[in-house]
Amino acid sequence: MIDDVLRERRAAVERTLDANLPATDTPPAVIHEAMRYAVLGGGKRIRPILAIAAAEAAGASVEPLLVPIAALELIHTYSLVHDDLPALDDDDLRRGRKTTHVVFGEAMGILAGDALLTEAFSWLSRPIPGVAAERQLQALRVVAEAIDSKGMIGGQVADLEATDSAGAQPSLNHLRFIHRNKTGKLLGASVLLGGILAGASGEKLAALETYGSSLGLAFQIVDDLLDQEESSATLGKTAGKDAAQGKLTYPSVVGVEAARTELAALLEAAVRSANAIGGSVNYLAPIARFICERRS
Amino acid sequence: MIDDVLRERRAAVERTLDANLPATDTPPAVIHEAMRYAVLGGGKRIRPILAIAAAEAAGASVEPLLVPIAALELIHTYSLVHDDLPALDDDDLRRGRKTTHVVFGEAMGILAGDALLTEAFSWLSRPIPGVAAERQLQALRVVAEAIDSKGMIGGQVADLEATDSAGAQPSLNHLRFIHRNKTGKLLGASVLLGGILAGASGEKLAALETYGSSLGLAFQIVDDLLDQEESSATLGKTAGKDAAQGKLTYPSVVGVEAARTELAALLEAAVRSANAIGGSVNYLAPIARFICERRS
Known about the structure:
Two copies of one chain form a homodimer. In chain A, 71% of the residues lie in helices and 1% in strands. By secondary structure, chain A is mainly alpha-helical. Chains A and B meet through helix 2, helix 6, helix 7 and helix 8 of A and helix 2, helix 6, helix 7 and helix 8 of B.
């Protein structure tokens, strides 16, 4: 059942991305080809799906919110395109295909990432029928602050620093900083964006915040466990790479068993918050389980 | 007199940038050092000054608008930091100092640029006392659309394409596309941002738009002429580089005399629009003259 719900929401996100990204014949064509290549090459679309689920749990009709919600995927994709660059993680494979800079060159990898981030804020600022401008501005600000130098980018910087000092004593605090910021904050902001655009406030918004932050950390622990266990074919990206690069991961710092225990606790916290939100269309708890039990 | 006005407005912009950029001891420290290095290393601050001038001409008190206006300088700086990267223009010198990636490394050059762009949208979305959220959202959208893949980034892509095909017949249309987008659109959006936040609409906003677009193109023609004529010491960046890289420039395509004639016509159009706006504090025309007659 949750599979059908996810498939349908994912299809709505794909449609929105495809319909709103500039066409490949818009000049200069090459950057629009690169943007579309990066975004439309598959992906689980977890951030927009979380935003949709939060908006539906808060009682909104989701159709008018799809453009700002799809912007979350532009932001996620920009972060992948830049992280994959030679000067950063230097990765050739992503979502089962060659990375953007491998296909279009390094300059276009940088500029396509920049363009996706910019496009995201353009989508987030387009007028939405039925949503007050104050709320929209608040939602946009929540997203911007989640991905700034103290948020997602800060997590990436801390990750690079940890990799550079590989061999030093791994610090659980440093690892938590990386995870909370690099992955957790945008996932949390996705949930909040959906809630805020749907008009949620007070206790409902607070429950969404707890749900999002628990799930954000859980998501990254799952990622770390999968990187250790799965093959590249299943993941669609280079597996075992974190360990090979000496990156801090949950299993490498606390051990696999402790990582699994923390994951279970985070899932429980997410499900509890999901249930506290109520609502007639609320599939936040099944999504949390889906994310924590995924195999890729 | 205009010198005093510009000096005072520039000081307000510097103060705002310094007070609102994250402190260098905010973790992760290195990215905040890189962001501050890039932004606070001098610069004419022309985009924020244009926004201030537009807001004042439209009758606003400028103090509450300084944070979103200073965001324009973050955007301009991000574009310089990324353009200077080895994969793009590969420049070592900017504003008379080593470029950001030379000092902090290529990874941090990419991430600091990303962080400045993101921070800009954060500043643009902070609540402004006395400004309606609708207007603020409109102003933010004008800026986002000016710097997207069909705007500033598109201009940079077209510029790279022109450089790659050096030796081919230079096309005035291609050059105009580059100039209008790479420099012109953000300058135009800066004027509009000031006007929109100040509450301008209708004919006044249309006059500001003409002023901004004329000045945007004029600015780039001056840049091209200076690159050809001036020394690196005066410019604070590598001079003669455009010609050496086979970049399209106005003088190289139409000749120096025709470039000067077009510049004079654009200045006249800007001054005419500036005067049409009226207002009790209107120094848009002197700024236009200052920009067109600058020597660095």
